[in-house]
């Protein structure tokens, strides 16, 4: 079993400025409707096992949720499936917002 790493909001913010990062939000629909970290892709936690993550081989992938628990589950699963740098955002979008970083409201159109 391969390991994922936790990343804090400050380190993620810096990483986003220096390289391509695939952000994956694993929250529920109602949570995502409140906003996402800019550039994130939405995949519910329950859908993670059915997604082919092989295109992300050798990439940097960061999972996040509300507080970091569900995203840790997703990160552990995906880290075991592909050879990539897989991270879990410690504290989730709550920590991101508390650090003063913004999020984007999803368009309803």
UniProtKB/TrEMBL annotation:
Rhodanese domain location: 17-105
SMART domains per UniProt: RHOD
SUPFAM superfamilies, sorted: Rhodanese/Cell cycle control phosphatase (SSF52821)
Signal peptide segment: none
GO terms, molecular function: thiosulfate-cyanide sulfurtransferase activity
Pfam families: Rhodanese
Entry protein name: Rhodanese-like protein
């Amino acid at each position: 079993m391969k390991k994922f790493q936790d990343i804090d909001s400050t380190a993620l913010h810096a990483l986003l400025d220096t390289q391509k990062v695939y952000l994956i939000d694993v929250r529920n629909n109602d949570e995502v409707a409140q906003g996402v970290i800019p550039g994130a892709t939405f995949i519910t936690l329950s859908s993670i096992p059915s997604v082919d993550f092989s295109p992300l081989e050798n990439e940097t992938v960061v999972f996040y949720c509300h507080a970091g628990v569900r995203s840790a589950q997703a990160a552990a699963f995906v880290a075991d499936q592909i050879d990539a740098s897989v991270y879990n955002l410690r504290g989730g979008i709550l920590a991101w917002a508390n650090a003063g970083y913004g999020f984007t409201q999803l368009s309803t159109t």
